[in-house]
């Protein structure tokens, strides 16, 4: 499973991260299908570089010709002027393997739940923070995810 491989690679590289997006919604218990793996990182130059190295070792490559240092240094400019809200990695040998690092959220400001999956415990953005992120995006699928997460919480 690609999610387990990504989590293992990031842990080996000591990346501070949590799973967000559709996988997080599913891990909280809602029915949700998605291919891409969305991650939130702690904002630091070292953490971005460690994530880039870990993903590259897995065969994933940045879709844009950007390095971790550039993404970290110019993150706010990329968000504001280029609408780059995620730094995307893809496996050229299997384009269904996609990892998006969310640039608009800092893990340090969020709560994380450790969700058991098989023999692993996965760091997942807590439902309240996930709802906040998805409401902010306003996309139809994200608003449906918000409804699903709220139904689970009631």
Mean pLDDT: 95
Q: What distance separates the N and C termini?
A: 31 Å
Q: Helical segment tally?
A: 7
Q: What would you call the structural class?
A: alpha+beta
Roughly how many Å is the radius of gyration?
Answer: 15 Å
How many individual domains? 1
Q: Largest sheet, order of strands side by side?
A: 1-2-5-4-3
Low-confidence stretches: none
Q: What summary fits the major beta sheet?
A: 5 strands, mixed
Overall geometry comes to globular
Task: Assess the beta-strand content as a share of residues.
Answer: 15-25%
User: Which CATH class?
Assistant: Alpha Beta
The SSE order reads HEHEHEHHEEEEHH
Molecular structure report:
The structure is a single chain. Strand 4 (86-91) and strand 5 (94-102) form a beta hairpin. This protein has a five-stranded mixed β-sheet with strand order 1-2-5-4-3. Strands 6-7 form a two-stranded antiparallel ribbon. It has 154 residues and is α+β, with helices and mostly antiparallel strands. It has seven helices and seven strands, in the order αβαβαβααββββαα. Helix 1 crosses helix 3 (45-57) and helix 6 (127-137) runs antiparallel to helix 7 (140-153). The chain is globular. It has one domain (2-134): Beta Polymerase, domain 2 (2-Layer Sandwich), CATH 3.30.460.40. The mean pLDDT is 95.
């Amino acid at each position: 499973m690609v999610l387990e491989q990504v989590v293992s690679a990031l842990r080996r590289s000591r990346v501070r991260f949590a799973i967000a997006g559709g996988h997080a919604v599913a891990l909280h218990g809602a029915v949700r299908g998605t291919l891409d793996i969305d991650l939130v990182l702690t904002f630091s130059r070292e953490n971005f570089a460690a994530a880039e190295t870990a993903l590259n070792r897995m065969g994933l490559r940045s879709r844009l010709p950007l390095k971790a240092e550039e993404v970290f240094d110019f993150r706010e400019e990329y968000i504001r002027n280029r609408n780059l809200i995620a730094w995307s990695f893809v496996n050229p040998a299997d384009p269904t393997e996609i990892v998006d690092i969310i640039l608009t959220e800092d893990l340090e400001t969020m709560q994380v739940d450790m969700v058991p999956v098989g023999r692993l415990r996965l760091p997942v953005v807590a439902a309240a923070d996930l709802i906040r992120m998805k409401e902010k995006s306003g996309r139809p699928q994200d608003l449906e995810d918000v409804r699903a997460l709220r139904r689970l919480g009631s």
